[in-house]
Amino acid sequence: xxxxxxxxxTALFISTKSKAQEAxxxxxxxxxxxxxTRTSLNLFPEKPLQVTNGYSVSFDxxxxxxxxxxxxxxxxxxxxxxxxxxxxxxxxxxSFDVVTGNEFSGISFKIGVDSLYHQWNKIxxxxxxxxxxxxxxxxxxxxxxxxxxxxSGKRIGVCFGAHHRRAFKTFDLPPMRIKDVQxxxxxxxxxHWPLDQTKGNTDKDLITGQLASIKNPVWLRPKFSQWQLTxxxxxxxxxxxxxxxxxxxxxxxGKDSMYNYNCGQQKKWAKAFAGPQGTPAGIQAAFDWxxxxxxxxxxxxxxxxxxxxxxNTWSQHLPSNGVTxxxxxxxxxxPFDSSIYTLGGYGDFRYKNExxxxxxxxxxxxxxxxDGDHLTPRYLSALGTNExxxxxxxxxxxxxxxxxxxxxxxNLYDMVLFDVKNKTFKTxxxxxxxxxxxxxxxxxxxxxxxxxxxxxxxxxxxxxxxxQLIKGSLKEPVYTTLAAxxxxxxxxxxxxxxxxxxxxNDKLIAxxxxxxxxxxxxxxxxxxxxxxxxLEVKAPAGRHTPMYVMxxxxxxxxxxxxxxxxxxxxxxxxxxxNHLPENKKRVPNETKEPVNPVATEAPVIISxxxxxxxxxxxxxxxxxxxxxxxxxxxxxxxxFSPLLKELFLLLFLHSLMGKxxxxxxxxxxxxxxxxxxxxxxxNRSVNIVKLKSILDKTGAYTLLKENDKWVFHFDDECIxxxxxxxxxxxxxxxATDIAGIARIAGIVKRGAFLLETEYAWLDKFKAxxxxxxxxxxxxxxxxxxxxxxxxxxxxxxDCILNFDSLSEEAVMFKCKALVALRQHASARxxxxxxxAEYKSIYGEAFEMEYTKVIEQYQ
Length: 858
Description:
Elements: H1 2-20, E1 26-28, E2 40-42, E3 49-50, E4 54-63, E5 72-79, E6 84-90, E7 95-100, E8 103-109, H2 113-118, E9 121-128, E10 133-138, E11 141-147, E12 155-161, E13 176-185, E14 188-193, E15 202-204, E16 211-215, E17 217-219, H3 220-225, E18 228-236, E19 240-244, E20 249-253, E21 257-262, E22 267-272, E23 284-288, E24 293-298, E25 303-308, E26 313-314, E27 330-334, E28 339-347, E29 350-359, E30 364-368, E31 371-372, E32 378-379, E33 382-385, E34 391-399, E35 410-419, E36 424-430, E37 439-440, E38 445-447, E39 452-458, E40 464-473, E41 479-489, E42 495-502, E43 507-516, E44 520-529, H4 547-578, E45 618-621, E46 627-629, H5 642-656, E47 662-663, H6 664-671, H7 677-695, E48 701-706, E49 709-714, E50 719-721, H8 722-732, H9 738-748, H10 763-784, H11 790-803, H12 808-820, H13 824-842, H14 850-856
Parallel strand pairs: 31-36, 45-50
Antiparallel strand pairs: 1-13, 1-17, 2-12, 2-16, 3-12, 4-9, 4-13, 5-6, 5-12, 6-7, 7-8, 9-10, 10-11, 13-14, 15-16, 18-44, 19-20, 20-21, 21-22, 23-24, 24-25, 25-26, 27-28, 28-29, 29-30, 32-34, 33-34, 34-35, 35-36, 37-39, 38-39, 39-40, 40-41, 42-43, 43-44, 45-46, 47-49, 48-49
Helix pairs in contact: 1-4, 5-7, 8-9, 9-11, 10-11, 11-12, 12-13
């Protein structure tokens, strides 16, 4: 037991550290925009910081690259005497200067270009108001200390970026990013704004709850988690794609024009060729960054064309009507020997494992004989190289052992090293086959220092697929998903995807190609803020783990220990009870003296989830995020691929809510549109078998065909389903049944029905479920809101708002309950947010003023 506790506590600390390294912060809109749209961060918008002996302001800073000017105010601190302490970036000296009052303080420092643009840098300004000493520390290194009468204020305003205070108004600020602003007094952390938001104009102090005010915020977290479609265009002919890693420009070549997309400027230029270029189907491109040259290739005829960017011409004309037999082959430039390699591919019913090399200086091709482990012939694999180009990593793909498409083709999940120097293959590891098959986009990003890779995967068994970014290890078969997915239309040889990394701009670029009719190619370019090589910030010397973090960890540890001890005592008691002689085991009394209920009102508490019997560990939760627990209580939700999840919901919902099942034809229409009857039937059969293998872990259920319809039911005694409990409660609960209302709210409190699950056919089910509950809950509030605790009213209102975010009654009752709890600011904030959303949706202002709302619902 002791070792188990230690293990869990260690895991707790590790998870806390991991979360601290996530990408977040505030980006400041600054240059080349109107003054009123520039970003400002005011830590104390209502009441200044109260100081006794002194204070320290610490924050993490980085600059955004490729701006023409970086001049401006990073930080301004102004006291009650209208004395200012400023941190300014000086473009002439390329240094940060500290200004006290109307003069330079003499404190100046520089941060290296790579560190300033691509890493977080911890800056601390330490002000002792008794000795009037100001000290500056950067990344744990003391820069300088000075004495100034300006360092004497006791009430301090702290503002980053644009400043709106009348006598100190300024809109000059550098294009910067800030996170983890902390204020210490007497060496104790008093305030901490992490700036970890996705939307809104405030950030909450983790210590006191103080709200910092932000004007025109640009939050970083969405930029690191959501791909942005930055360009979309159509190219004449079959397009080829390559990246110039020096200028971080993506070249997209077509039949009549060259397109250049610059990652830093997020702009595209197009130049028409002097004459049309041949673009055979399956054309490939590669960029030799050592000589700054772009090539296109047609491997079948071993031809290469060199692009002349000055005259906008090609060195030779590739065959216009050619069709490759090396579809989706991998291609890379190796600085090790200044050669371009191609590997694998598919065509003419065969998968390839050949390695071809093109030597630009000799303009010669050769086929490489590779020793070592056997490389299964394949295509749809990812390939990436290390910095020196002497090692290429090949990940997964689709192929067959002998290369014949007729002999058991299948997805591959191995990591293979191609040693460019010694011309050998070496299998590093193999993944366990996933529940849902996937293949890979063509390129892979390699981080040799951390022995990691980044790649894009997609389901290659459907046309409406999506690209998912993953991060994995070069040493062992593990990977995790990152960021949101990208829509991807996959149709084998008509589709292609590339992944590129732009370290100067800290961005990933995903390029997708889809061949249209009439010899056209649709090009989509997506970008994601990203920095796998960024270094962690070093904590300044003398700083310890904040006390509030320690308190949280200690409280969690104590709660965990108590929980484990309780479980141990319970299990021990059961074992003792099981070993008692039969006549000594406790049995319930046959007769008991009746106990009369006490007629007193008690506060109602809503459980976050519906109560599940101890013997009923299996559960399916459809309110909130879709969740499934097996017979041991383990979460097996990840076993459901998107396809299996939708199939399960189709079967279950069409069997439960007064329905009599769903036909095979309807399933085919929704899940496999456009497929032949035979193909759809095969897909349905295979996926039902997969679904059954997952559901077998949950317990008893039935899936059968009745009257040509599929009917699905769980055994109620073995599996808890929150939707079934919810529907039963709605039938037997009236508006005055507080206990019943509490149970309904306990289910809905997890979130809206199938939160973040969207299918066109699901809308009717969602509407039916919400319309059954909303009138009942509002009726309860009308009758009982004055007789129950305000906290309970708030919980009921939150449940209604899960169904309808513009429910006027729920918002009004919630505001009233918050006022009853003396949370006036929160009540007004909810009302303000509501009227803004109301006007946005309905195009007209909400008629009732806040004061009337409170009066009416008192």
